[in-house]
Structure prediction request, 734 residues.
Amino acid sequence: MRKNEQMVSGNAHPTSTNGIGVGMATDISEQPEAFARLVAPGSAARIAEVAAVVAARRPRHVMLTARGTSDHAALYGAYLAEIRLALPAGLGSPSTVTLFGTQADYSKALVIGVSQSGRSPDLCELVKAARKSGATTVAITNEPDSLLAQNAELVIHLDAGVERALPATKTYTTELLALLMLIEGVRAGDGRLPEPEASFLATLPELAARLLEDDGAEPIASRLRFVDSLVITGRGYGYPTAREAAHKIMETSYLPALAYSGADLLHGPLAVTAPRVPVLAVVGQGPGGVAMSEVVARLAARQSEVTVVSSTDVAGAHDRLHVPGVDERYSPLLDILPLQRLTLALAVTRGNNPDAPEGITKVTPTR
Amino acid sequence: MRKNEQMVSGNAHPTSTNGIGVGMATDISEQPEAFARLVAPGSAARIAEVAAVVAARRPRHVMLTARGTSDHAALYGAYLAEIRLALPAGLGSPSTVTLFGTQADYSKALVIGVSQSGRSPDLCELVKAARKSGATTVAITNEPDSLLAQNAELVIHLDAGVERALPATKTYTTELLALLMLIEGVRAGDGRLPEPEASFLATLPELAARLLEDDGAEPIASRLRFVDSLVITGRGYGYPTAREAAHKIMETSYLPALAYSGADLLHGPLAVTAPRVPVLAVVGQGPGGVAMSEVVARLAARQSEVTVVSSTDVAGAHDRLHVPGVDERYSPLLDILPLQRLTLALAVTRGNNPDAPEGITKVTPTR
Prediction:
């Protein structure tokens, strides 16, 4: 499959001139459609079937495993599993299997491998080992014929289409959506989503489309053009968004972008947020957002310039990326969109090609 | 307790002039003694008792929870538990309990809270909630009367003495040692350490003392004086060391120091390691080290300047912090020592006070 083909489409992003960044802009613009495909009845029914099988097994704990961008989706899945299923959940280190040959007992576990390509050898091996020891295994991937999908008992196909740019965007957000549908389906027991989840999913494609039309990302990217480093922070459900935004900015603008949970930021690295280091803060609607408001106030007291990703004004913030006001649990699916557009615009304004940044490949064969 | 008192001792570090950094230098220099206290028969017997209780409960998975520096010790504990106990292990997010009120079922879990002060409210609550739901709970702390210690069923006292500087050093390494003794004791079943662990622990204080006498950290710190950012990388057991070194440098020199697992580094952020960004790479003796040698070669091919923390020469490395050649499993207890000295010397040469850096406090009351 040609992973790197550049297609100029009618959805081209306004910052993309001379074809630079058109691939990433197109990928970003396709997310509402990708959401719509995944929540459509046929796909939703297939995910519900997977969820019903998982629910019937009554797992006692959840382990997710992923690399790179998908690792941030997996982190979202871990929060969802802990909070919505009340199951201990965490991210597994593939190296314990691939480098150290551990054969852990996963017989009470739900093990979820998340990978757009489904080809990272370490994830494939970890899922295989977990299945062998009795785990219920699920692969979430954009490549339903991949080795990861073959190694897992159950498969959720992201159906996000080919990603044109090397930095993942629509495969990331569809991974988030698949995890939300899976875990809420397990919570429901029969896999069928109750209210309010069903209503939210029905409106998601439209919310995403409207957000991408008007998010205020470009002037903020322009303002960040000359920075040397960035700090990005969030708590709870907002933390994976902070991690993913930092990763994307780093991949495409080669800037040291430090991601912290708002709590960990106060445990030491606060001094890195000197007045000359801009901060992006994800402030949701809910307990995580309340905790983050305090972090923004602490940062403002230190003369930090804080741009918030929020649906409402936040005291102490200098600027804001406007996102819809949804329950925090859903916010990662939307909050990352303006941050993807910010990433793209920042890379372009700094003279980099976000479609094919240096140093990354679509499939990274680590063991 | 006066956490911040500065005591000038005969062990003062040569880079410490005018009292700047004497506290941290003294803390660092006391680690061999702190190791010796923890492995001494009385303390070892108390840890063995805790380990025997844990082993008898036959936990099915392990959750560790911590904040800041202790989070890196907890990460070491998670690797140890997965590899040595073959139990699924991960780090828990206290915010799921404290912000979202989750009551997860930890009845099959070993839950370990790691905190020098034992006072972080979120950890205390998570351990309390886990114990209530039936978990076997262990507090590892330097304050045996703290709330964390009260909330846990079992307590391991680090007995590291008062830390003079705000950045944690001797409490970090004693946390690592306590986790090693606990988990190897659980593996043994009766808590008593077999060979080769017993022999290694007997030699550890002496290995640490010799390493602190001659590690080559100062010329490297001098060379890094003018950098804008740093990348620090390791794999498997070496990854917590990379994370902790980055955290310490950030806290004391206010530099963006990015920590990556060697595998994740190849999944995207490699381009951040431009020729002008120095890399520190932890290369152990074992499977993690073999994997890291490939990472160093990849970095060298990109004209990165790589300083390795290693007991042997590594192809492509520009410079080396010399550490004793021990099994990778033990290496975190030693590899961090020259990196602590590097941190101290770098902060002093950049005109900062590592004993009382901006922005950090010894106890951070996050929820």
